[in-house]
Amino acid sequence: MGHPLSSLDGVDAPCSAASECHSVIGAEPDHEGEEASMERATTIGLDLAKSVFQVHGIDAAGGIVLRRKLRRPELLEFFAALPPALVGIEACGGAYYWARELTRLGHTVRLMPPAYVKPYVKRGKTDAADAEAICEAVTRPTMRFVPAKTEAQQASLVELKVRDMLVRQRTQTINALRSHLAEYGIVAAQGRKLSELIAVVRDDDDTRLPVLAREALDELVGQLEALEQRIARLDGRMVRHAREDETARRLTSIPGIGAIGATALAALVCHPHGFASARHFAASLGLTPKPHSSGDKERLGRISKQGNPMMRRLLVRAQGSAVRRSFCSSSAGYRGVKRQASGRPLANFSPMGQVALSEYVSGWCPYP
């Protein structure tokens, strides 16, 4: 007679005896062995999440010594009990916070773009596989890391993102106001100055608008005025910050860079000297052409747009402003911009200036 579990497909072999199965099921976890293996962990991959985190650790020889799931309240306590180690984290939501906290505990934290970690995932999408891939990627000598931001830099970014959101809402409100008034044959010139349209909405004697439509559009006008005031308050704060912060103040000396651009550069570009040249910085923002080359055939397409879209937009606008002002300014800096822009289409010139690191172009050194 065969084994009573012989109908299994052979992938999971049955226990040879009831006593053996009992010993496996009733075995107590070896806490001492686990703590000893934790002490040997020199490199750790941490997969972040909202509630449940995954940890994968290896020793100096590359052997796996640690695999564990941790709840959010347990994470800092767990790392506080570990000896200093190299911790790899994907640069995602909350990564800067955890990088600062783990650094305070004595660990060396490295942040990596998720796209650079993905090739190291062996198979499937699980937290354990992601943590193992992070642990493998952080040890690669060619890996590119993301500098951790301070709380002050993140606060500046919050201010910039809130302003960007309010500007989008203002544009949405203006477009809605224009489209609704156009249904009644009321139009105005392009731009944000809508004094004519606002006067029509607020004029009770204008018979072109029904009362019901006038009352509804008056709500949009009130929202637009409130948005203008909020944006103006944020702009004032950024101007004061640009005057008080040394790096931002030096950045405003670059042609085309104002308070908003200087605040964004100081917050987003933490370590400008990590770029080998201005073109490397341009590539990080997605301002360089995307290559499609093979052999002796070199083809360059459109710009890659792989970097921060807000920073890219600010720099392109700053470059356009510098070019326009260069033709009516006699200062040495603007003469240099005019000389570089001569004979170049703006689309080709904008990525080549790289105003944030223009010491490579025109001799400025805005960063201390």
From TrEMBL:
Cytoplasm found in the keyword field: no
MF terms (GO), sorted A to Z: DNA binding; transposase activity
Keywords: Coiled coil
Location of the Transposase IS116/IS110/IS902 C-terminal domain: 249-326
InterPro entries, per database record: Transp_IS110-like_N (IPR002525), Transpos_IS110 (IPR047650), Transposase_20 (IPR003346)
Pfam annotation, one family: Transposase_20
Coiled coil: 217-244
UniProt record, GO biological process: DNA transposition
UniProt domain Transposase IS110-like N-terminal: residue ranges: 44-184
KW Mitochondrion (keyword) present: no
PANTHER family on file: PUTATIVE TRANSPOSASE FOR IS117-RELATED (PTHR33055:SF3), TRANSPOSASE FOR INSERTION SEQUENCE ELEMENT IS1111A (PTHR33055)
Record protein name field: IS110 family transposase
Lineage: Bacteria, Pseudomonadati, Pseudomonadota, Alphaproteobacteria, Acetobacterales
